[in-house]
Amino acid sequence: MKWNKYTLKTRSEAEDVVIAALADIGIQGVEIEDKQPLTRLDKEQMFVDILPDSPEDDGIAYLHFYLDPEDDNETMLGNVKKELDELRVFIDIGEGTITVSETEDKDWINNWKKYFHQFHVDDILIIPSWEEIQPEDTKKMILHIDPGTAFGTGMHETTQLCIRQLKKYVTEDTNLLDVGTGSGILSIIALKLGAQSAVGTDLDPCTINAVKENKEANQIPEDAFRLMIGNIIDDEKIQSKVGYERYDIVTANILADVLLSLTPVIVHQMKKGGIYITSGILDVKEQEVRKAIEDAGLTIVETTRQGEWVSITAQKR
């Protein structure tokens, strides 16, 4: 099968933000081509200590994504350009140009999986299906996640920030709502931590299979984690189906601009005293999100950081 391959030219410093924006509109499995040197963690995950010399970093990154020629590529590219224009307001993304070519790689969506290896988020082991658990890890919490078409393997800083907050706040009585659930990783971890139930919402239909597979891999009962596809921000049917004043914890690992619209809506789904865990916030957008949270009547109880990303945890009065 032939695919349309699109290459977006940006700055290497902005690639994480641009990829997050692409994921938000449904583009997954982005390939990164840059000249940034590998970090110590990168080398650990690739099980190598010495690498050949690489070209000097020129600060440029090329992000490759693929679209089915049978789909409406024109509309999707219009959405991409709109996202890029919005990003330019608060971050230098470089040229932001997009070129197109054609590929006949039949399994492009799976090829990058060979680069995903097991890793830890504190005392939680996250491991793909093709690797074995080491004897020293058998007593740890183990999460089975395979990279796929829905966002969320736990490798990204924003997800790790949420995981650490869940470890602090989840109890055996917790009913969780996860907005933008992606692979379902946060809901599954909450349930493994002892939560009573989880509901996830997402815009991307790819989430359906991803959540199903990850629930099965982690032996999550069918009725413990329910998924709903739709936009909870402006769809009253989804809001009603999710339910009002039902949730002890709401997680939202999504872009800051979406949090601005989501926050005044989602407070109605939360119980009094409920905890709101947000992430996906670039540090330059922190103050805007803080204001939105406070304007919605929530009290900020904690702010945590990892790299350039921020997580804000708040409580409903």
UniProtKB/TrEMBL annotation:
Principal EC category: transferase
Compartment list: Cytoplasm
A molecular-function term among this protein's GO annotations: protein methyltransferase activity
Domain of life: Bacteria
GO biological process entries: methylation
Presence of the UniProt keyword Hydrolase in the record: no
Role summary: Methylates ribosomal protein L11.
Protein name: Ribosomal protein L11 methyltransferase
Source organism: Blautia liquoris
Organism placement in taxonomy: Bacteria, Bacillati, Bacillota, Clostridia, Lachnospirales
